[in-house]
């Protein structure tokens, strides 16, 4: 009897060896992985934040992390050669330019992305995974209606080259929520002042979305907010950077959380785990309400919604 007890662990190990060995192999798979991070522009703070959060979580899960800033790489074929030379197990792309190049030159390598404006506009292959740049439309629009319930006509400026798919989805969402979407398309040679003059008198609120075709530079941003102020229309947008211009309500994705979420997804890819959602909605959000600006615009807000607000900006 004692001999049987002494040999039991050995017998169990042999019986379960078909299970034990794969577990050992899988557990070390991501620890030996080589990851290539391709950043569209490391000088952009939100890109750097998401990259730092990703690297912090992945450092202990990868054998080697290679960091590339496309702003420092003059030719795209240099990236192509780097991918060939290094043969990474995973390419993590940050920003639209990085994702396009990683998809183009990545071959069969898994490509993970984040911080890509309206990812739906890009061709996506079976080896593409990502964390969306925007919160779900249902979440964004539900919060708008909850916090500012008196506003029914929502105006939006967009360039179809960047946001056609997102606006098409927004039309349906708003119909279901009994909101009216009033659209103004922006083309390359359009005069922004005239478009704002045509749009703002017809709406209750301006929904300012991430669109490089509209917000091309600081001057364009200033025009949007100057016109909104002149017509006394609140601006609902996606980044706290716009509160200094007079944004009334901001619902933004939390950037470091996006980096950690991308890292979790990267680990699942490397471990070849089943992934239910290959493109994930940002897990964290931050809501800012500028009650000072709303007061200047004589716009009421739902006081019952204050418990959901992360940051309240009052007049000083």
Secondary structure: elements and pairs:
Elements: H1 2-15, H2 17-29, E1 34-39, H3 45-58, E2 64-69, H4 76-86, E3 90-94, H5 96-105, E4 111-114, E5 128-131, H6 137-147, E6 153-158, H7 160-176, E7 180-185, H8 192-199, E8 205-208, H9 218-230, E9 235-237, E10 249-253, H10 255-270, E11 279-280, E12 285-290, H11 291-296, E13 311-313
Parallel strand pairs: 1-2, 1-3, 3-4, 4-5, 5-11, 6-7, 6-8, 8-9, 9-10, 12-13
Antiparallel strand pairs: 10-12
Could you characterize the architecture of this molecule?
With 316 residues, this protein is of the alpha/beta class. The chain folds into two domains: 27-134 and 256-280, Response regulator (Rossmann fold); 137-253 and 285-313, Response regulator (Rossmann fold). It has helices at residues 2-15, 17-29, 45-58, 76-86, 96-105, 137-147, 160-176, 192-199, 218-230, 255-270, 291-296; strands at residues 34-39, 64-69, 90-94, 111-114, 128-131, 153-158, 180-185, 205-208, 235-237, 249-253, 279-280, 285-290, 311-313. The strands form two sheets. The chain has a seven-stranded mixed beta sheet with strand order 7-6-8-9-10-12-13, sandwiched between helices. A six-stranded parallel beta sheet has the order 2-1-3-4-5-11, with helices on both faces. The protein is elongated. The termini are far apart. Mean pLDDT is 88; it is low at 1-28.
